[in-house]
Amino acid sequence: MRLRKRLLEGALVVAVEGDLDVQAAPVFRAQVEAWLDEAPGARLVLDLRKVGLIDSTGLGALLGRYRRLSQEGLAMAIVAPPGPALAVLSMGGLTTLVPVYRSLDEALGVRAR
Question: How many CA atoms lie within 13 A of 2 on its CB side?
Fold first, then answer.
């Protein structure tokens, strides 16, 4: 898994490439937490266009970031996960909590609900 970050429009945009699985989830969790700490008040936009597999551990890592942000009154958005990844996010209930957008531009218009 590879992670890249950018700050755009008041959002921490994290692009995930590769699998978000039991091996990658701890790295994802630690890195995104550190980036959120460096950007207080930023909402999180996860660009999942290039994500492969998401397993239950990866889903848990995503839910954990959602919980942190919601406790801080901040929004989280997801951008264009491929079909299999979207299915896991839906089955895990994340798509009922976090909006999923077709493009990064669309997601950057997100504000806290």
Answer: 4
